[in-house]
Amino acid sequence: MTVIWVYNAQEAADAVNAALADGTTLSVRGRDTKRGLGRPVATDHVLDISRLAGTIRYEPEELILTVKAGTPMTDIEMMLREQRQILPFEPPDWGPFFGAPDRRATIGGVLAADVAGPRRFKTGAPRDALLGFAAVNGFGEIYKAGGKVVKNVTGYDLPKLMCGSYGTLGPLTEVTLKVLPAPEREDTIILRGLTAPDALRLLRAVAGEPLDATGLAHLTGELAQHLEGALGVAEGLTAIRFEGAREAVEERAAALLERYRRGGARRLGGEVSRQLWRRIGGLDLLVREPGIVWRIAAPPFAAAAIAGEIGPNAAQYDWAGGLMWLLLDDAPHSHASLVRAVAARHNALSTLVRASDEQRTAHGVFQPQDEVIARLTRDVKAAFDPNGVFNPGRMFEGI
Question: Does residue 154 surpass a pLDDT of 70?
């Protein structure tokens, strides 16, 4: 297997045309921080876009940023921080979780995997922030879609289609994103000792109030014990975050603190709060525990029932239960039959996110699609990549 390094969109197109002429396949990668996400891929060559990096245009006053797809997230975050702005979907760093602690993700990889952090339930997913892009399709053609404004009428909403495609439709080369002003203040209210069902009921109640919380998470004791200092507890840890204007955050946090003061509620501010949510988004605590990890996106009211039926060794709940990370014993069968049956019963979607290559190949990674959706998936793949050049089998067998 050879690595093809590209520095611009034309070189990426040339590489695709060469693969078409030779009848070979390409694995699309950036910094390779998510190699363990999705089914293992065996290709003839690697198309590396990590050197296709840099800012094309940044308009802070218009809240618009256009960068090349291989630009590291650390560079983007530093640039935005200088202008007191942020990406709304709070992209987490999963490099350590997938065994790449020394590498940092690229924006193209974040968008391709549609990776979002704890703020996602409030401000949307990456696909909601992606306004437009340039990419190379399976015909070796460079094309553009979307625009540089929040509302555009340029045809099909291809930006949303590319997010979560895991590179199977081709490499992104350029992306235009919506950004937001950074909040003036951030406070988090934490509670200790709640069981997961009680914590999830509390988080759903807070989500239903006009408090504008931007973080609603619960860690079971098996994970919370790995937090440092006073935050490390052997029982569960429940966290509620507020962000925004200084006075508004102070008022909301103080009201919630007073409500749960008898329950031992405590307020975290500034960098302590930010570090906690970075660790939640980055799955840092799950790194400390061995075993199979499943990700389940579910209706929040079903989270406790799903966990009860599966019986994980530990769990991290985010988005008030809308996102669950369940840790189970390592086993050859990966608990796939149990997890997928329970997820389907509760109208949830399951993803096997940490397991061996052999387990992910044998049992698949994503929730199996019904016949209609599977046919649409194959049709989309055929429209963008009829010869199966890009990341063959990364999502589903043959896709």
Answer: no
Say if residues 217 and 317 touch (Cβ distance below 8 Å). Answer: yes
324 with 316: CB under 8 angstroms?
A: yes
**Model pLDDT for residues 73-108, shown as the tens digit of each residue:** 999 999 999 999 999 999 999 999 998 887 889 999
Could you tell me which of 370, 329, 378, 325 has the C-alpha nearest to residue 352?
A: 325
Cβ burial 295-309 (10 Å sphere, 16+ → b, else e): bbebebebbbebbee
> Helix, strand or coil for residue 72?
strand
172-178 vs 130-136, strand pairing mode = antiparallel
The predicted pLDDT at position 155 comes to: 54
CA distances from 345 to 125, 242, 309, 318, 352 (A): 25, 33, 11, 21, 17
Between the two ends of the chain, the Cα-to-Cα distance in Å is 21
Please report, as a single letter, which amino acid is at residue 245: A
Query: For residue 243, how many C-alpha atoms fall within 13 Å in the half-sphere facing its CB?
Result: 20
Q: Per-residue pLDDT averaged across 233-252, rounded?
A: 95
DSSP at 132:
E
pTM beyond 0.85, yes or no: yes
